[in-house]
Amino acid sequence: METEQKKAFEERLGLRFAHWNAPFWEGTQKGELRIQQCRDCKHKMYPPRVYCTRCLSANVEWIKCSGKGKLYAYSTIYEDPPPRVAKFLSPPYTLALVDLDEGVRMLTNIVECNPEDLKCDMEVEVVFHNIGEEVNLVWFRPKA
Q1: pTM (2 d.p.)
Q2: Could you tell me which residues come within 8 angstroms of residue 41 by beta carbon, excluding any fewer than 6 positions away?
Q3: Measured at the alpha carbon of residue 97, what is the angle toward residues 120 and 50, in degrees to the nearest 5?
Q4: What percent of the chain has pLDDT over 90?
Q5: Counting Cβ atoms within 10 Å, is residue 66 exposed (0-12), middle (13-18) or buried (19+)?
Q6: Boundaries of every domain in the chain
């Protein structure tokens, strides 16, 4: 994508994309949650990096996750979200930290649940939310 075209695309969506995290976004289009793993020390990482955060190796690969985890912490917001994300969030919305079964922690949103029903350590599963233009956001819901 050309620079001006990419900039306009990112401004419309309120998101920023980089070539080194493209496999993450490509995975969401296939209904896959992907994280990185170092080929040298096997350390798993999220958010995406260009090098391993444990051994500093650039020998990292993308692996598919189960999409399951536990709710570590959360906060429900009752005010309007920032303008750049107001297209796909409306109050109340719940921001959360989810510990994936693979051992990484992910900042996300919890959906399909009343905020008062949330509990730390409850099991959650990934759900992909399409915001248009071939972009799916990674959100979580209580495990069925």
Answers
A1: 0.88
A2: 52, 54, 55, 57
A3: 150
A4: 74
A5: exposed
A6: 3-142
DSSP-derived 3-state class of residue 139 = strand
Per-residue pLDDT of 68-78, as tens digits, reads 999 999 999 99
| Block residue for tokens 């719940």 | 94
What tens digit of pLDDT does each residue of 64-116 get?
A: 999 999 999 999 999 999 887 888 889 999 999 999 999 999 999 999 999 99
Phi-psi region of 29 (alpha: psi -120 to 50; beta: other; left: phi over 0): alpha
Matching CATH number, 3-142, of 3.90.420.10, 3.40.228.10, 2.40.50.840, 3.30.390.30: 2.40.50.840
Token readout for 47 is: 């958010």
Query: From CA 49, how far away is CA 51, in angstroms rounded?
Result: 5
**Residue 51 has which token pair?**
């090098």
Do the strands 60-64 and 34-38 form a parallel or antiparallel pair, or are they unpaired? antiparallel
